[in-house]
Fold this protein.
Amino acid sequence: MSDAGPFPSRERPLGGQRAKEAWEPQFADDPHIEQLQALSGGAAWPVPTMAAPVAHDCFHAACAPPVPPASPRPPAMPTRTARKSAATPARLARENAHDEIYEKIYVAILEHRLHPGTKLVEERLAEIFDVSRARVREVLARLAHEHVVEIFPQRGAYVAKPTIEEAADVFEARRLIEPALLHRLVETLTPEKIARLRKHQELEMDARRRDDKRAIVRLSGEFHTLLAELAGNTALARSMRELSTLTCLVIFLYDAPTATSCRADEHSQIIEAIAKRDAARAEKLMMEHLDHIESSLRLDSTAEEPDLEAIFNR
């Protein structure tokens, strides 16, 4: 055997009888060698490829397996981006309808056109807005998540009706949140933000001149939501929107006079303090403003219960 080892040299391709002579001694003791020879029908011995580094030129084109014809490629499926682009108009239309219904119900609650405790019947709302009940159910679930609507199993959805304890909780939360919002707003103040506050104040004053009580209530609540929006903290802005709406429900429930519950002159004073970048004064004015609103409510939990015996005694 040559120095190249047990394998034949790569310079001398093997085939036929020479391959048999080179490899047969290594398998002389193999009990299956005769069966392999019989199966091969005496043909030339193949050169193993798993052990010997045989060059590719030892194979003949005639021995290569036939290459199957290329099958036609199926038509390309639309990509996720293409499907998303095609579905975008329909999805946007659904989202716009959802937002429109949400805003209409929300504003109706703010303006006291929907009173606390009013039942919101899915079927009727679906007819009014010309949408499915499933779409209405989504809107009501969103309002319920913001605590503006309450959903009871087997009973349906109702405009929230805050208790006296819940009303007190609302004002406590506002006293914690709104001073911090004012401080942040003063730190990030721009001429555009002041312009938006003054524009809103003009709308509020116009509603008071017209004695539009619904607009007065809505714009008064939206003033506080606008402060939170301009402060730039989205989480606090969401909380403030919810608290402002609950405050409107509380005002309606507990008989606060609209003219004194959220006074326009107090809003004007807060705006002026913000414009002067006087955060301390703005925070002080806001706390006094919240005190005035709460003090105008009838949150006396010791109110007398009706005497049923006296009512029905004949």
